[in-house]
Write a structure and sequence with these properties.
Strand order of the largest sheet: 2-1-4-7
Radius of gyration: 24 Å
Bound molecules: copper (II) ion
Distance between the termini: 79 Å
Shape: elongated
Number of domains: 2
Number of strands: 9
Helix content: 10-25%
């Protein structure tokens, strides 16, 4: 009797182990493909970018990836007139990827056209 219980428990563990192994094989954990990509993430939330509208530093002739993610309840966009960046309206939970690139150094303002009073910061292109 006691041996039967031990056997049932052992078989249960083996069964669960096999199911777990098959699950891992058919549904492997997703590896993040973005962690090694250098770039800038601006999260639009509470009518600010990243809470502080941070300066973004970019080197001349070294394009930098820019992802704008909208975690707000209203639409936002990001525009840099002189760098020809315009994400168009980004809906809540949507994102848009673009690039910051310039052949010339300078300071350029980025802003949201819907909330230009609060969502405004600087892109600084520095010499190489
Ligand atoms: Cu906005």
């Amino acid at each position: 009797m006691f041996n039967n219980i031990i056997a049932i428990i052992a078989i249960s563990f083996i069964t669960v182990g096999i199911i777990w192994a098959i699950g891992n094989f058919t549904h492997p954990a997703k590896e993040s493909t973005t962690t090694h990509i250098k770039g800038v993430l601006l999260v639009a939330q509470d009518n600010l970018f990243n809470g502080t509208n941070p300066d973004i530093i970019v080197t001349v002739n070294v394009p930098k990836k820019l992802v704008v993610l909208n975690k707000d309840f209203v639409r936002h966009d990001l525009i840099v007139d002189k760098l020809n960046i315009n994400t168009a309206y980004i809906s809540p939970e949507q994102d848009f990827t673009t690039a910051i690139a310039s052949k010339n150094p300078g300071t350029f303002e980025y802003y949201c056209s819907l909330h230009p009073m609060t969502m405004r910061g600087k892109i600084i292109i520095k010499a190489a």
